[in-house]
């Protein structure tokens, strides 16, 4: 159902439908959270990943940079 909503909504607001989908929007949201907070652990929990490496690969960030940023954030 979410996919149908996206299929209708995206062109109605003047965006290119091929650039937006349910998965890309999910990835965009967590990427924005990571960018604003640097909290890699929070992103890992939101995505339901069991391994930090999976989250790092999903975001497409360098592991050392990600760990440096996340060390400054306490949960």
Automatic annotation (TrEMBL):
Keywords, alphabetical: DNA recombination
Organism of derivation: Gemmobacter nanjingensis
Domain called Tyr recombinase: residue spans: 4-61
InterPro entries: DNA_brk_join_enz, Integrase-like_cat_sf, Integrase_catalytic
The organism's place on the tree of life at top rank: Bacteria
Protein name as catalogued: Tyr recombinase domain-containing protein
């Amino acid at each position: 159902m979410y996919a149908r909503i996206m299929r209708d909504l995206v062109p109605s607001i003047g965006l290119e439908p091929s650039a937006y989908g349910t998965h890309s929007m999910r990835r965009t949201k967590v990427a924005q959270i990571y960018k604003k907070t640097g909290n890699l652990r929070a992103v890992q929990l939101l995505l339901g990943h069991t391994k930090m490496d999976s989250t790092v690969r999903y975001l497409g960030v360098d592991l050392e940079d990600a760990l440096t940023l996340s060390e400054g954030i306490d949960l």
